[in-house]
Amino acid sequence: MTFWNRDEWWDLQPNDLWKTQCPFCDITLTPLVKEFTYWYVCNNKYPYWGNKKNLLLIPKRHVKYSYDLKKQEWWELENIHNFIHDYFGDEDFFSFMRESCTGRSLEHLHYHYLPWFISNEDVEHILEKK
């Protein structure tokens, strides 16, 4: 599988491609790690800082906001979080998502899970962008 950094990802995108063609609705476009009843856990093909352990949690339904999730989808998160803890093992990790449309790359709700440790090179790269 080819991983891209975030800058390359933005360079590859037509202006409004993901507004009309959602890559998370066609899961064959995303590298699947584990499938649950209502969710997919996938590797991020365009990981932050090039970190290949960047997981995505994606609802199977096209949902834009967390308040649109059904009870069953919320309830399944306990099992998914147990899986993610096992995936990272003893390694600390953090998660995030952007609820509003501002700054979000896709209209399909998704959560990111990343190892907590960020190398000095990653920090330097981030600071160069500011």
Characterization of the model:
With 130 residues, this protein is an alpha+beta fold. It has helices at residues 6-12, 17-20, 71-88, 120-129; strands at residues 32-35, 39-43, 55-59, 93-96, 111-115. A hairpin with a 3-residue loop joins strand 1 (32-35) and strand 2 (39-43). The chain starts with 5 loop residues before the first helix and ends with a helix.
Biggest sheet strand order reads 1-2-3-5-4
Let me know the largest β-sheet. Answer: 5 strands, antiparallel
- Class based on secondary structure composition and strand pairing: alpha+beta
Q: How far apart lie the N and C ends?
A: 30 Å
Q: How many DSSP-defined strands?
A: 5
State the main characteristics.
130 residues; alpha+beta; 5-stranded antiparallel β-sheet; 4 helices; 5 strands; 30% helix
What order do the helices and strands come in, and which of them pair?
Layout lengths: L5 H7 L4 H4 L11 E4 L3 E5 L11 E5 L11 H18 L4 E4 L14 E5 L4 H10 L1
Antiparallel strand pairs: 1-2, 2-3, 3-5, 4-5
